[in-house]
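Hello, quick one for you while I still have it in my head. A protein chain has come my way and I'm curious about its shape. Can you walk me through what the tokens say about the fold? No rush at all, and the record is pasted right below.
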Amino acid sequence: MFSKLKKLYLEKGEVYLRVKVRPNAAKTRVKEIMADETVKIDLAAAPVRGKANQELIKFLAGQFAVVVSNVKLISGAGERVKLVKIIR
């Protein structure tokens, strides 16, 4: 599902993602990429003390094959819609 975003990441060395999360899901997975390129992601973590944000960062690091420290939460730490930057 991330093929277009991964290609952009490989070309530029970084990519920004607008992510809409749904915490407390059965498992962490990409649900869909919307028309405006917002990525909907289900998270298998509760939105308590940053656990959902940590799960999101870990999941995206795995999807883009980068270390966790290369995934930055730019905005939306306490919101369902977040801006995430992934760098090499």
